[in-house]
UniProtKB/TrEMBL annotation:
CDD domains: TPP_E1_OGDC_like (cd02016). One of its GO terms (biological process) is tricarboxylic acid cycle. E1 component of the 2-oxoglutarate dehydrogenase (OGDH) complex which catalyzes the decarboxylation of 2-oxoglutarate, the first step in the conversion of 2-oxoglutarate to succinyl-CoA and CO(2). Coiled coil: none annotated. Its EC number is 1.2.4.2. The keyword Nucleus does not apply. Pfam families: 2-oxogl_dehyd_N (PF16078), E1_dh (PF00676), OxoGdeHyase_C (PF16870), Transket_pyr (PF02779). This is oxoglutarate dehydrogenase (succinyl-transferring). One of its GO terms (molecular function) is thiamine pyrophosphate binding. It comes from endosymbiont of Escarpia spicata. The gene is sucA. The keyword Ribonucleoprotein does not apply. Keywords: Oxidoreductase, Thiamine pyrophosphate. Belongs to the alpha-ketoglutarate dehydrogenase family.
Length: 953
């Protein structure tokens, strides 16, 4: 580096390459002095501002002055030196260039409606930099500007204005990666890149704008007053997406997965994906296909679709995800789906499958899942190689909101700066500029595998929906909109003025498109039908099986021994933590049969058995590698150097892939991501674990809008497993209940499974059943906390090598059936407390039955479990949760409907409460002791059973 410094000093300080190099080094130095070599650090330390009020880049001006005095200017004699005044001006010009790069977007022509006057930006004003008296023809070095090395002052200003203050406003100087910034500069500052559109492309662009406008006008006239969330005002989205697909296909993309909310969806379905117009019209007219009548269905602007589109680089499969009204919740779902598709292709860097997310401006700025999803983008377990984000920026939120009320930031896109994504704002009324930034954004994504944003600033010609009257609250905006010509009209006039097309040809495009709609022809690019795609997943085998399909889930004793040995094998140079040494010693005894198998080992054995059978396993959540309760230890860390070792990835040579990843501190985005993954990959076991079951509250939108209802609304299948730690150990309201009642309330039409396993063997068989049974429904599992190391919550080896998952476990002790007066029914941890209390009291008249699967309710297994006790008159449901929570309110009708005559049903548990649990441990212990005593003794609290007590005889 000293040699390079000498070379720079011996040449002109104003040679373009030198200026860029020094400017770049100095920027890095200001951010982190240790990021530059020591000699440059010393050099820049001499340039510190003389006062705190001096701007940060001021010292670089003195630096140029010093070099100007010391060294000759290139191209002149050694005696000819640049004067200090000229050096001062040159430095100011370089600062002006930097000012345009940093803040030029603030004066860009972005708003088609010109709703606000441009703000004054001092950094763009030559007078502010004392350059107002410079003659237009004075020549300056252009530094790192992608232009000739030396240009007259006026040409420098003109170039900067055209590049940074035209129809495109580029925000990228917030990025710290110099290579990425320089790449963008070279692409956007070379004006020839922006003016390279050919006549055929112009005509196709007008064709697409005609289609975008045509479908909206047709629907508006044919289905008056019906909601369609039109794209009018943002029609440039259609050529944007068309260019994105074509350019992506030309760069090797084989699949594109799109997520978007309502606005413009019908337009995209018709004009991009090739959905037949008759199907769109049928949805408006309420005509439903016979095979959909068994489902609830959904509104037309929530529906998904997929198709195959030809591109210069080959066929691209394009899928549009189903989207509920929670606008941005689709983001992580799409990312998870893309990750699954990438893994199926072996696409580890995202070169073959591309995620595209289309947002509204207010939703992007206002909904937290956007930030959470962005935060996933560069993490190891969740990256998809970069997402193209498109903002349909209507400059108004929902029905009435002014941008001043929808965010605290200058732009709706500012949140994306957290991941240093470049942001390209573009005027939606300039479709050629839209095409340029589309190519630019996609090329950046391919080059750097990072997220990139296109903020298409436009407007909304109608209200939030077509029945809304927006001028009631936005009179000034909508006066301008009513007078404003459409995007198609403006572009047609532009092409007519340039003699590219005649007025008659432009009108013929409109009439031809409408004629195609009326005839029901597909109006998009030709779609490819009956394509055989080797990466296609056939879901048909997973929807024809009932819940009780016989499934072999046990493994052979030899397999148990082999798997145990591989799981417990540790590399010779690997140093375990002392606490893990003890756990590994215990697991060795479990493997040999000298000790019963505990929960952590039983669960791990389930994964190991599936992996060796060719089934991939993906497990994510907070602390899942170790396990929140120090029980799983799927990922080990060498105590010498911190290097990880994952036994489940080292079972055998040809095993399936196992990924365990500790997620970021998010429930909503991560659960949405895993739902998306599981909904695209039926042949892998996908699991998400909450740190505490209560924390799934933060992902309730995913649970309500996707996990529990996607099958009914959209016919989608998904085998996702949710592991929710649950149990009352006196840890307060937020660490006790997984809110079991909420999941049971969502149960209907066999949409999900809800299980509460109480033994390691049960969880082993349950997890294996989830993937081996040809049925894909989400599985909600209430997992234990204290039971993870409970001496009774264990299983012998035979329980893994024999049997299967038991939806109901009957009485485990040998009681005299004729002496049993009460049957206590329960789920989960409370079983062991009841059991131990019964043993302590030597009670022989109480049987205990565990309901391990609460939904679908296993009636046949339940009747079989209580049948041995014909003399038992009282059936007691015992739970730890308050009466208005837990399973009681959602399960009592199961018992009432099917109990034999003469039986009575009672509730035992905590009284109704607003919070799930108390926060004082002594109070918790007292409540727990009371409910155990009431259940076993039969001393029922009458107040809690006024409505529940029922003599069914």
């Amino acid at each position: 580096m000293p040699a390079l410094l000498d070379i720079l000093k011996s040449s002109s300080a104003y040679y373009g390459g030198n200026a860029a190099f020094i400017e770049d080094l100095y920027e890095r130095f200001l951010q982190d002095p240790n990021s530059v070599p020591e000699d440059w650090r010393h050099h820049f330390n001499l340039l510190k501002p003389s006062s705190s009020s001096e701007v940060a880049h001021r010292p670089i001006q003195a630096h140029f002055l010093r070099l100007a005095r010391e060294r000759p200017l290139a191209g002149r004699s050694s005696q000819a030196c640049l004067s200090p005044a000229a050096a001062e001006q040159q430095a100011a010009v370089l600062r002006l260039i930097n000012g345009y790069r940093v803040r030029g977007h603030q004066n860009a022509n972005l708003d088609p409606l010109q709703l606000r006057d441009p703000e004054y930006v001092p950094d763009l004003d030559p007078a502010f930099l004392q350059l107002d008296n410079i003659g237009d023809e004075v020549i300056f070095n252009t530094g790192s500007l992608a232009a000739p090395e030396r240009l007259p002052f006026r040409k420098i200003i003109d170039l900067l204005q055209r590049v940074y203050c035209g129809s495109i406003g580029a925000e990228y100087m917030h990025m710290t990666d110099t290579v990425q910034k320089r790449w963008i500069q070279e692409r956007i500052e070379n004006l020839s890149n922006q003016s390279s559109i050919q006549i055929d492309d112009k005509l196709w662009l007008l064709t697409l704008l005609t289609a975008a406008e045509g479908i909206e006008k047709y629907l508006h006239s044919r289905y008056v007053g019906q909601k369609r969330f039109s794209l009018e005002g943002g029609e440039s989205l259609i050529p944007l997406l068309d260019e994105l697909i074509q350019h992506a296909g030309n760069n090797g993309i084989g699949e594109m997965v799109i997520g978007m909310a309502h606005r413009g969806r019908l337009n995209v379905l018709t004009n991009i994906l090739g959905k037949p117009p008759q199907e769109i019209f049928a949805e408006f007219e309420g005509r439903v296909e016979a095979n959909l009548q068994r489902r609830s269905g959904d509104v037309k602007y929530h529906m998904g679709f997929s198709t195959d589109i030809d591109t210069p680089g080959g066929i691209v499969h394009v899928a549009l995800g189903f989207n509920p009204s929670h606008l941005e919740i689709i983001n992580p779902v799409i990312e998870g789906s893309v990750r699954a598709r990438q893994r199926r292709r072996g696409d580890l860097t995202g070169e073959q499958v591309l995620p595209v997310l289309i947002h509204g401006d207010s939703a992007f700025a206002g909904q937290g899942v956007v930030m959470e999803t962005l935060n996933l983008s560069q993490t190891r377990g969740f990256t998809t190689g970069g997402t193209i984000h498109i903002i349909i920026n209507n400059q108004i939120g929902f029905t009435t909101s002014n941008p001043l009320d929808t965010r605290s930031t200058t732009y709706c896109t500012d949140v994306a700066k957290m991941v240093q994504a470049p942001i390209f704002h573009v005027n939606g009324d300039d479709p050629e500029a839209v095409l340029f930034v589309t190519r630019l954004a996609l090329d950046f994504r391919f080059r750097f595998n990072k997220d990139v944003l296109i903020d298409m600033v436009c407007y909304r010609r109608h209200g939030h929906n077509e029945a809304d009257e927006p001028s009631v609250t936005q009179p000034e905006m909508y006066k301008k909109i009513r007078r404003h010509p459409t995007v198609r009209a403006r572009y047609a006039e532009h092409l007519i003025a340039d003699s590219v097309i005649s007025p008659e040809q432009a009108q013929a495009m409109v009439e031809n498109y409408r004629s195609s709609l009326e005839q029901g022809r597909v109006v998009s690019r030709p779609v490819i039908c009956a394509l055989k795609n080797i990466f296609h997943v056939d879901w048909h085998p997973f929807g024809k099986t009932d819940w009780d399909h016989p499934t072999k889930t046990h493994i052979s004793p030899e397999c148990f021994g082999n798997l145990s040995g591989q799981l417990l094998r540790i590399p010779g140079d690997f140093e375990l933590h002392p606490r893990l040494e003890k756990i590994w010693a215990e697991r060795r005894r479990m493997a040999s049969g000298d000790q019963l198998v505990d929960w952590g080992f039983g669960e791990t054995l389930a994964y190991a058995s599936l992996l060796t059978e060719g089934c991939p396993v993906r497990l994510s959540g907070q602390d899942v590698g170790r396990g929140t309760f120090f029980h799983r230890h799927a990922a080990l860390h060498n105590q010498v150097n911190g290097e990880p070792y994952i036994p489940l990835q080292n079972l055998q040579e040809n095993q399936a892939n196992f990924l365990v990843t500790d997620s970021l501190l998010s429930e909503e985005a991560v659960l949405g991501y895993e739902y998306g993954y599981a909904s695209a990959e039926p042949n892998a076991l996908t699991l998400w674990e909450a740190q505490f079951g209560d924390f799934a509250n933060g992902a309730q939108v995913v649970i309500d809008q996707f996990i529990s209802s996607a099958g009914e609304k959209w016919g989608l299948m998904c085998g996702l497993v949710m592991l929710l730690p649950h149990g009352y150990e006196g840890q307060g309201a937020e660490h006790s209940s997984a809110r079991l009642e909420r999941y049971l309330q969502l149960c209907a039409n066999h949409n999900i499974q809800v299980c509460v396993p109480t033994t390691p063997a049960q969880v082993f068989h349950m997890l294996r059943r989830q993937i081996l049974r040809p049925l894909r429904r989400p599985l909600i599992v209430l997992t234990p906390k204290s039971l993870l190391r409970h001496r009774l919550a264990t299983s012998p080896i035979q329980a893994f090598t024999e049997g299967c998952f038991e939806p109901v476990i009957g009485e485990a002790d040998k009681l005299n059936p004729n002496e049993v007066k009460r049957i206590v029914m329960c789920s989960g941890k409370v079983y062991y407390e009841l059991l131990e209390a019964r043993h302590t009291r030597s009670l022989g008249d109480v049987a205990i039955v565990r309901i391990e699967q609460l939904y679908p309710f296993p009636l046949e297994y339940f009747n079989k479990a209580i049948a041995p006790f014909p003399q038992a008159r009282d059936l007691i449901w015992c739970q730890e949760e308050p009466q208005n929570q837990g399973a009681w309110d959602q399960i009592k009708h199961r018992f009432r409907t099917h109990l034999q005559a003469g039986k009575r049903l009672y509730y035992v548990g905590r009284e109704t409460a607003a919070a799930p649990a108390v926060g004082y441990r002594p109070q918790h212990i007292k409540q727990q002791e009371t409910l155990i005593d009431e259940a076993l003794s039969g001393r029922i609290n009458p107040d809690m059973n006024q409505r529940s007590l029922s003599n069914l005889g």
